[in-house]
User: What shape does this take?
Amino acid sequence: MKLPTDLVKMYKEIHGWVGIISGLALFIAFYAGAITMFEEPLQRWASPPSRLAPPPSLERTPELIDKVLAAHPEAARDYEISLAVDSTRPARMSWTDASGDEHGGGTTHYASLAPDGSLQVETTGPSPVAQFVDVLHQQVGLTFLPHEIAMPVMGAIALLYAIAIVSGLVVLLPSLVSDLFALRIGKNVKRMWLDIHNLLGVFSLPFHLVMALTCVVFAFHDQFYDAQAAAFGRPDRPAREAPGPPPAILPPAEIVARLGEQAPGFTPLVLDYSRRPDGSVFLRVAGTDPRFGTRGPTYGFAGVDPATGQIKATDYMPGRQDGWSATITSFFALHFGSFGGAPIRWAYFLLGLSGAFIFYTGNLLWIESRRRRERKAGLVEQTRPTRILGALTVGVPLGCVAGISASVAAAKLLAHDATPAIHGAIYYAVFLAFVGWALARGAARSGVELAIAGAAAMLAVPVASLIAGPGWYDSPALIAIDLTAIALAGLLAMSARSARRRMIDGPRDSVWARTAKNTAQTSTGRGTEPAGAP
Assistant: This one.
């Protein structure tokens, strides 16, 4: 396909600048997002056993509810009944106090019945590390910012991401047929990495388009609804009233039985009861149906009348939606990979890692091209912006990888003592240390040293499993977490070896060489050869 040279050049500049602005944030989003494909297995791996008594049967659950509401009347505002109790949901009944909101916060309480029938309540629940990684993914690494601020920032980065996709495709179009399957391995390492960058980008293009568009919707969700309300009006909401006497509702066992009659393929997991301002109770049932995609990452929702057990709302219920709701859900399912079971989740995991790799190599290629232009302009020393960008391109990705690994390993070792604040402190301590080291040591040296440190941090995950003792190997999914960590540590070790070889034997005037001098030609005659990626 023939395009005007000036047009291609313009889009190449756009692609480069947009990529360098958003690439590091997108690396964090994609790497953390890849891990969230196994959020539930990770949470089970990291969560210590509950110290509560075994959960009562569904038939005895009304007794538990009555005792909780008598001792903690504030729980009537919103409480959950877990039908499948495990380390991720360690109690039959739980609720979060009034300080919590839809974005987190507040203290979650878990309740069970002791063998003698007395009420047991504790506030130590499942490990928060999986949720921390998810928020890191959602907020492109800006978990220290309020949700209302971080999400628009994420939306702006997603818009840049979409521009980078379109501009990159325009740049590649003239040589698409000849270069698509080309993988030129040889002395020109930069060309090889460019071929890999282009190949991964083209074949994962549908995935990236879906990610970019859905991220924009997620980021500006509140703004979209606010604009809709301003244009079409919003019904007045009644003022919140004090809860009245508990209404007559069916016991959980009866709710589950009636759901089974109405929707045989739907498996309920959680019954979420909330009190409306008028004192009535609203019941939302979270569950799955493997035949259909879901609106959330792991389950969909059905609105149920708690007094009769009849399904009243199916907008978010898999398999029972109308055409419009099913269409909207398909976009969510495509983003979360919540369809097709384990094969799709593994595919999304690999696509997420390859996406992070695309942004990483894109930055490396842009920086090396910038250095080449500096050499042509007669600059002997690398400019400060080039040195800083090179260091950040090493420090930020490796800091993200090591920070998440250290936080995950700490979750296993700290057990009940781990909190979201502790995980945040561990992640940012490691992340900032890596970035600081890269800035102090330079891209070339830190590319070797931090890759080794990152591999060590990754190996801390299986080591933590062994230290934690029996139970770490309870299921294939939990074993897969440790094996994946070992495999990624091996890749980082190989990266360190490659970076060291390039630093010593590569072109002396490259950003990734040990010296910052432009010696034009070295004794090996490779002074002008483009360098590769770490």
User: Anything to note?
Assistant: Residues 234-241, 516-534 have pLDDT under 50 and may be disordered. The chain has 16 helices and eight strands. The radius of gyration is 26 Å.
